[in-house]
Amino acid sequence: MGFKKMNRYTGNPWDKQLDESADQFRAFVIYRDAEPKISAEKVGESCGKGKGWGEQLCSAKNWVERRDLWAEYQGKLIVEELARGIPKMRKIHADLSTSILLKATKGLQALNEQEMSARDIAILVDTAMKNERLSRGEPTELTEGKTETNINGRLSVAADPFEGLTTEELREYIHARKSE
User: Fold this and answer.
1) Rounded to an integer, what distance in angstroms lies between the CA atom of residue 156 and that of residue 72?
2) Domain locations along the chain
């Protein structure tokens, strides 16, 4: 009993076409996947068929367009994969920032005021809070009544909110925050 030949055509231009032999498709795959790109002429030579064979197939089987569509498809897959990773990344960053805030809070409560300046502590807390907000997709800065969210994942501090305060004023600020 003979087996019926199965076609594996999926409708994608980068897959084997119904009118394409196995050798022709192998040649196209070499052309499609070559990095850096190679000419159809070189594909023909690498397959032992001669330059003309590769050039003829390239034209007859639309290799250039098929390779371009393949590259576009691969690009979309990469973008989709990156997009799927964003929620996981945000959760990891939020959890890490929360952990830092918890440790900073414990450290503040146990810290001898002589070991670290109040300014250092305030900057640490401010940075951790901004990182947590950023990882949760919340705004990190309010400007002129408009909310701006940093979506590229970079944290920037435009100005030091504690600049100009004396050490004593910073200590009072931290003490007041602990009491809240």
Assistant:
1) 34
2) 85-142+160-179
Q: pTM for this structure? A: 0.49
**Per-residue pLDDT tens digits for 39-82:** 999 999 999 998 899 999 999 999 999 999 999 999 999 999 88
Asked whether 165 and 173 are in contact (CB, 8 A), the reply is yes
Q: What is the tens place of the pLDDT at every residue in 132-142?
A: 888 788 887 76
The helix (H) or strand (E) run that includes residue 141 is strand 141-143
Q: How far apart are CA 114 and CA 27, in angstroms?
A: 73
Concatenated DSSP letters for 78-101?
A: HHHHHHHHHHHHHHHHHHHHHHHH
Give dist(CA 82, CA 88) in Å, integer: 10
Torsion angle (degrees, nearest 10) of CA 108, 111, 116, 118:
40
State how far the Cα of 103 lies from the Cα of 179, in Å rounded to an integer: 17
Rounded Cα distance, 131 and 150, in Å: 11
